[in-house]
Amino acid sequence: MRVTVRSFAKINLGLRIGTLRPDGFHELRTVYQTIALHDIIRVQVARGSGIEIRCEDPRVPKDESNTSYRIAERAMPVLKARGRVVIEIEKRLPVQGGLGGASGNAVATLFALERALKKDLPTPERLRIASEVGSDIPLFLIGGTTLGIGHGEEVYPLPDLRAIPCVIATPEIGVSTPKAFADWDSLTGGRGSHADSADSKLTLPPASDRMSEFGRVLSAWLGSLSQIDFGRALSGVPVSKGRGRAETPLLDLVRTGIENDFEQVVFPKYPELREVRRVLERGGAVYASLSGSGSATYGLFASRQAAEKAAARLRKQGVPATTTTTLTRQQYWKKIFD
Question: Which of 176, 199, 272, 292 ranks highest by number of CB atoms within 10 Å?
Fold first, then answer.
């Protein structure tokens, strides 16, 4: 039996890079948000052995370096299953785009594999396997708005707030995440704060202070939710904030001023990405940012109409852009197998 599932993308609502840890990872703080753009994953288990990746996109690896391959390789023994696993990846998301495409593919493969075998892993076991394969893979086992800490693999669900319009711009630029981290280390001396080198132009507070600041901002936002009609926020009814306009709690989060540290090193190398963000902001985005290390750049909008106009403006300038929406946790789980 061949099982077909959707593999959704994510954006980062703020991303704070901390110190380089002894294990080679950087300490991170970020808020992940799933969105409706997706790839398609098809999995079947046949007679034989081994794992086969099929994908028409030549940029997608078809060997053991593929995240879908690696998660299937780990899951099969735990599921106590045998057979030849065939994974078909219909790629719609950009490769190296910062939208978590490969990570989402891995989780979608796991879901499809479980369904094909008619076996379910306990959620803690899923999370363990996912964290072994990649840093941001576990978020796709939660969905919606999710806090990521550690090196991004430790995830906690945040309040499931209503979906809002979003524009995703995907310039044809491949940004290497390892290279972006290396550039950050060169700029900060690997401490997530200001570097000692005389030619460093980036001065930041100590990394521990910056991490604490991110936590305070998030805590203040969560505290503000308790002061509003939370039931209305969850159901999608706008909440008046006394500023003469309707707001949504998710937009309130990004208005706190959270930023993506990767912009400090990616924008100087790819100024066209900074210009994409400016176009989104001029087009009315409440918040615009690089997603992960890029190159995907997104804008959040108060209305679908405003989002569509901004996307059209980018396409007119030759930048691929799509209007979509953020996904609540409930929508995420409903649409995976729909």
Answer: 292
Answer for the pair 292, 15: CB distance below 8 angstroms, yes or no: yes
Q: Are residues 56 and 106 in the same domain?
A: yes
Whole-angstrom CA distances from 77 to 81, 104, 121, 213, 268 are 6, 21, 11, 42, 46
- Extract the residue ranges of the chain whose pLDDT is less than 70: 190-206, 226-247
pTM, to two decimals: 0.87
173 and 149 together in one domain: no
- For residue 242, give the CATH number of its domain: 3.30.70.890
How far is CA 155 from its chain centroid? 12
51 burial via Cβ count (<10 Å: 0-12, 13-18, 19+): buried
pLDDT for 202: 55
Judge contact between 187 and 265, C-beta under 8 A: yes
| 182 C-beta neighbours (distance < 10 Å), count | 13
Cis peptide leading into residue 295 (ω within 30°): yes
Identity of residue 237: V
Residue 58, Cα to own-chain centre: how many angstroms?
23
The domain of 96 spans 2-159
pLDDT at residue 239, as a whole number: 46
Positions marked active-site: 10, 136
CATH of the domain at 85: 3.30.230.10
